[in-house]
C-alpha cells in the first residue's frame, strides 16, 4: 500500500509506502519484532487491512518507524507534527 500524495507519518516512508505489520510478508519476522500472527495472513480482507491502516494513522507506532524524522517529531514536538500533517493535507487538496 502506498500513498501517492505527500504524507507526514511515522509509519509511512518518504516515498509513501505504508509500513504496517498486517502488510508484511507472512511468517516469522527475521528481526524478531513482529509475531507471525501479526503479519499477512490469507484470512485478511480489504476491510481488515483498511481498519488496521486507519488505526495506524490515528495511533502511530513510533517504536518501529518507517519515517524516523516524523516519529521523532511525533514524540518531541506534537504541535509541529500536527502542523506538518495539515500542510500535507492542504497540498493534497490543492492538487485535486
UniProtKB/TrEMBL annotation:
Domain UBC core: 1-94
Name of one Pfam family that matches: UQ_con
GO molecular function: ATP binding; ligase activity; transferase activity
Top-level taxon of the source organism: Eukaryota
InterPro entries: Ub_conjugating_enzyme (IPR050113), UBC (IPR000608), UBQ-conjugating_AS (IPR023313), UBQ-conjugating_enzyme/RWD (IPR016135)
Active-site residue list: 19
Gene3D superfamilies linked to this entry: Ubiquitin Conjugating Enzyme
SMART domains linked to this entry: UBCc
Keywords recorded for this protein, A-Z: ATP-binding, Ligase, Nucleotide-binding, Transferase, Ubl conjugation pathway
Family: Belongs to the ubiquitin-conjugating enzyme family.
Name assigned to this protein: Putative ubiquitin-protein ligase
Amino acid at each position: 500500500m502506498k500513498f501517492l500524495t505527500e504524507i507526514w507519518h511515522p509509519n509511512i516512508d518518504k516515498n509513501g509506502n505504508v509500513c504496517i505489520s498486517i502488510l508484511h510478508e507472512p511468517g516469522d519476522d527475521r528481526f524478531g519484532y513482529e509475531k507471525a500472527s501479526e503479519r499477512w495472513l490469507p484470512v485478511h480482507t480489504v476491510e481488515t487491512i483498511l481498519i488496521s491502516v486507519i488505526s495506524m494513522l490515528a495511533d502511530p507506532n513510533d517504536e518501529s518507524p518507517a519515517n524516523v524524522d516524523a516519529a521523532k517529531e511525533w514524540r518531541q514536538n506534537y504541535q509541529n507534527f500536527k502542523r506538518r500533517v495539515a500542510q500535507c493535507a492542504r497540498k493534497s487538496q490543492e492538487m485535486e
